[in-house]
Amino acid sequence: MMRVVVLGASGYIGRNFLRFAQGRLSCIPASMRGDAWRARVRAGADAVLCCAGVAHRRASKADLPLFYEGNCHLAVEAAQEARRAGVEQFIYLSSMSVYGPHTGAITADTAPAPKKGDPYGMSKRLAEKSLLAFVQGGGYAAIVRPPMVYGPGCPGNFPRLCALVEKLPRFPEVENRRSMIYIDNLCDYLTRVIETRAHGVFLPQDEAPHSTTDLARLIAAAQGGELRTTRLMNPAIRLMQGAVPPLRKLFGDLYYAPGADRAAPEQLRFVPFEEAVRRSVSGEGAR
User: Is 120 a catalytic residue?
Assistant: First the structure.
């Protein structure tokens, strides 16, 4: 059984990966607080999965060093430690945020361009560039750029949308397209990347992009209700999207185009979208 050191094992993705991969991989959890993680990497492994990082917080000027330390410098140190220990594969959990304010379809040829002033996207992209040294040293680096990750107990935009669905008397009926990925689908994806020793840049998502309204409709059903929608707000939403980033995130188009994920591993087992949303709202499965 392959041995994998999981850095950032106490975070949402890290702890769910440990749950999901149990029985398929021999996982060694490690926190990147302090230096104890270095010994676990040096002890030998087939791969190191770096899930550690700083996210889901507004960045003040005082917080900027936290983003670069947590999302870039520590990841690069871990890759260097892994290379010295003879680990062949280093998997870095990046983000769709490296594409910055891009709207519409992202293809395999879309160049990353993180938004200036966004320390999350910029620090993730800087780490990606620095990981080239791991490849030049003879290792295999896998850079994974997931879109919005949702699941039971997840942080971020999904619980905010659930609260919005409960509060609004009518929800906008918008025909946009957004990439997202259910936590178990992401964990299966990462497991397959490790099992196949894959390397390159990976753009995972659920089987297809969906509209925010479709997602809200399934959330409402899982909450035991029925979503009432309206198109009356659509002109205002279109007009204000450019100036109001939260509206653009919620109702704009941002998705991985078909065929964009050229390096995708085979034999993935997707949980269907409707079932994934139901589990996410009910709290079933993930941790």
Answer: yes
